[in-house]
Every structure is written in C-alpha cells, then in structure tokens.
Write a structure and sequence with these properties.
- By secondary structure, the protein is α+β, with helices and mostly antiparallel strands.
- It has two helices and eleven strands.
- The chain is elongated.
Length: 171
Amino acid sequence: MNLKEITDLIKLVNKSSLIELKIKDGDFEISMRTEKHGLSKSEEPAPAYVAPAAPAPAPVQMTPVAAPVTIPSETLSDSTPAATTEEAATRSDYLEIRSPMVGTFYRSSSPDKPPYIKVGDSIQQGSVVCIIEAMKLFNEIESEITGRIAKVMVEDATPVEYDQVLFLVER
C-alpha cells in the first residue's frame, strides 16, 4: 500500500463505526484501532493502528412480528402447508433478531467454544448473540432487546442474508 491508500483507509475507518481492523498481505501488515466510546466527532482521537476497509455493520433491527391470521382448517387447501399457519402462530409473541449484513453465521467464537446463547437463555440489551463473518472480518452481533431466546432460526456456520431472522426472542 502506498501512503495515499493508507491515508484514505484511515479516513474511511474514522467515518465508520469500526473500532479495529487488520490487514496482512505477505510481509505487509497494518492494523488500526480507534477509541470511539461516546466521543463527539471533534474529540475522536486519531487511530493508533490501521487495517482493512469493510462496510460498517448496520444496527441489528428487532421488529415485532404481526399477529397470525386464524384460518379455519376446512378452508385450507392441499396446496397450503400446515407448517405455514403453525409457524405464524408460534412467532406471534416474539421479537426477531435479524442479520445486519450478509455473511456466515456462527453461534460461538470458535468451534471448541460453547455458543454465545442457547434456547431458553435470557439476554440483555448489548449481549453478544452470535458472530457474522463478512470479508474475513468477524462481527459480534449484539442484541438491542432484553428477553429470552425462544428459537435459533439459522444453523451454525451457514450463510445468512441481510435482514434474515436469526433468533426469535420472547419479551
């Protein structure tokens, strides 16, 4: 990397919500770490290290699920799967934790570690619930709500899309 690319990278990281980035390419290695804990734009310190530019993760969005529509069983046709109405009934009182980015979903920090959360665990706002790997960066996903995990909607180590439901949370 030349000086201009490094300078552009520093500016990009300062404008993003990223705290730490690292780049390693052969013998070349650069890392950046910022301290952005409640500081105003003018008070933010210059980064101490540099690393790869990646899009900042979007905030995790929790949205209440709409109440299910009750359909009399005699009106269900053979082409309407029963699981659809059962799933709607199961999700009526839950909030959803959705993926803020495209990437690979991991329930734990490494294969030999226990998952961050399991069904039945209580979570608080700010609790880490999973990791999503995007562009070789591991992004910890934090809950924006307090509740109890009712269901894990994604298998470990599988790809997820932006805004895909990861967990159902009881209020």
